Amino acid sequence: MSGRARLMWDDAVSGYDFGDSHPMDPVRLALTMGLVRAFGLDSAVDVRSAKAAGASTLRLVHREDYVAAVRAASVDPRAADQSYGLGTVDDPAFAGMHEASALIAGLSVGAAEAVWRGESAHAVNFTGGLHHAMPGGAAGFCIYNDPALAIARLLELGAERVAYVDVDVHHGDGVQAAFWEDPRVLTVSLHEHPRTLFPQTGWPEETGGGAGEGGAVNVALPAGTGDAGWLRAFHAVVPELLADFRPQVLVTQHGADTHFDDPLAHLAVSLDAQRAVMASCHELAHEYAEGGRWVALGGGGYAVVDVVPRSWTHLVGIAAHAPVDPESVIPSSWRDEVYARTRQLGPARMTDGRTPSWQSWDAGYDPADRLDQAVLATRRAAFPLRGLLA
Model pTM? Predict the structure, then answer.
């Protein structure tokens, strides 16, 4: 394995643009790459682009008729077929939609290929993580499901065990659906409870089907969960599953929308806790994945100035084995870029000033605590199916 992490980037990802009034502003991607450069992390990683996902790659997950509908809407957005989820409030059609979406998918597939082939132990595509797209439809700001495509490509290349851990505030429903009956893939999602947030799936009882029974694990967190609860839930579920499954590759999705400033959800997680989970994913990859193979993706995140660029810059630094000190002062050059692009003032430091901590599940649980109830529901539903104690 190469010791140099790979960062997938192409300026053309800014073309994934649903319009000025849409919360998923592509400026979050440009600002993240700007902050990566401001901290000199671009010299600590191998920055590469990749070919857009072609028809044969997209068919690994998506139906041909759906891809044809995306192509048609990309040429004439006014004629988008809403039966495929295109041209809706969540997923407005825009010119060049297919090309931009296929590029992001191609970057995630390229990250997976680099890790599988040993060109890099770790690869990051923070422009990806679009986990809601289904085989036959767009959903939740997602046109093509790049995490599922990356995993499917790993399987095509010969992988027999791939673990996917999703810590976005929204359930990773599209990835779960793609591998619902596939015992080669373990999907784990920690998200806000479906009673209070889109896509209203991700209940603990969703555990996979057929040969894949026990291959889907869902932790439905109560609204308002903060750092201590979020970290407790992660550590009560994820390490034990990975220790049992022993994946050849670990794929993780790091939506930044768990943050307390995110306008579209109701968790209360800090940037510092997000960074702690990224570091844990890195450690788990080295401990349980073959050769430390780790593909790390972005995802949601709609506090596009204050949260997303800092969160994913930490992700790049961790993957590069060059972590950014949370107390670091953010370079003034980047804050100038923020103001020039958004007329907002950027954050001053790489921390929210929190010191994340949590209580280990091994120390016992409180049956009256809502967070502990959520963790216990997950363990009782999924762990026995994998031969693990609840």
Answer: 0.98
